Amino acid sequence: MAADDPSARLTRSNRARHRIPVRLRQHWKPAAAVLAGLAVLVLAFGETRVRPYVTSELVSADTVVEDVAGSADLFGADTHEIELTFDQSEYEEMMETFREDGEKEFIRADVVIDGTAVPDVGVRLKGNSTLFSLRTDDGQDDAEVGPGKVALSDDAPETLPWLISFDEYVEGRAYQGHTEIALRPATSTSDTALNEALALELTEADGQTTQDHTFASVTVNGGDAAPRILLDAPDAQWADSLGDGVLYKARAGGSMAYLGQDPTDYDDVYEQINDEGGYDLQPVIDLLRFVEEADDEEFAQELDAYLDTESFARYLAMQDLISNGDAMDGPGNNYYLWYDTAAERFTVLSWDLNGAFVARSPGLGAAEDTAVSPQARSSGGLEGQRGPEGVMPPEGGMPPEGGESPRVGSGTRCPRTAEAAGNSRSGSWPTPTSRRRTCGPTPTCMTL
Fold first, then answer.
1. Residue ranges per domain, the chain?
2. Disulfide: which of 241, 251, 382, 420 matches 359 by Cβ 3.0-4.6 Å?
3. Of 138 and 368, the one with more pLDDT
4. How far apart (Å, rounded) are the C-alpha atoms in residues 441 and 437?
5. Mean pLDDT calculated for residue range 173-187
């Protein structure tokens, strides 16, 4: 039969061989050796993670190629007029996605700032605890809104906290050097968020790094105007302006738990803002490992090598001064870590101060927020607050006549003495704490 003819089988074999490129037929042995070697590597090291050792210089991944000049200095002395326009159906879909999944998606919009039109910007909701009241269709009661926050409604988009991104849809574009700006919402103490403005001013006056801010009148889709605070969002350009270093943002819901050496395990804990590709999360991982594994003696002796403790003490003191219950130990996890690549240590930076100057009962968010009264401000304390049982004011410091010691938290005295932070005071009043705490030179103790 023809099918069993040896010459026919040889012909089919030759045809199949000639479909293979000539060079591969001539050099098949080296190619086979390479494939065999790859197979051995995969079998032997398939579960091994390879981590690059990066030595490149700090260069921002965001390069501005179009900088819109505008008609007035965005963070100068003048107030501003901002008009946002976007598709209503896209807005409604964005809000529905946030209610169902908690995802804050960008939508395309046009913005006019003081008469200067900037088309095709990206806008999305901005915040964490600030947005609690938007997660349900019928709103929430005051105890669930968040410390210092007000109930928000998607029927009034001019009052919502917005992040405006100039380069979301147009790569390399900025407005006066800013790729992002934030519109802050009202708070329980001020319709115009004057409490946040005051907190920002005090932070700057103390010499701490903070964000520029100004005031603006905001309209959305031609609707009513609302007075808002306009804030410089910490983007890559903002980070680069601080000097040689890397900026990391703490994500809501994250913690300072050490999760191992794999950077991908921290994707939901910290966000790297600048110099991606030059540095990664390794400095943060080293800090968390030290906090987790150091014994008390090592922690006291070596903390300053990882963290600028003098700056951290000022940060803690400022959060107490402004009565901010939504700082790095609050529900929003609101802080940044700045890693100075020359000093090779961190500085804690404040962010989202709209919970400032709001008094609350023990247990963060456990009771209705109340504004700090004039009497409390004049006495230097918080109305209705008292010190923890058994804790006396510092020597020489007594509460005003008829007043009581301010309470900054609940629990027992801080287990770590202030000497650990270079201070001679041996005790302090704690805020809600976790396993690891450090004390500053003021009556406070903050989760580290």
1. 66-233, 239-389+399-447
2. 382
3. 138
4. 14
5. 93
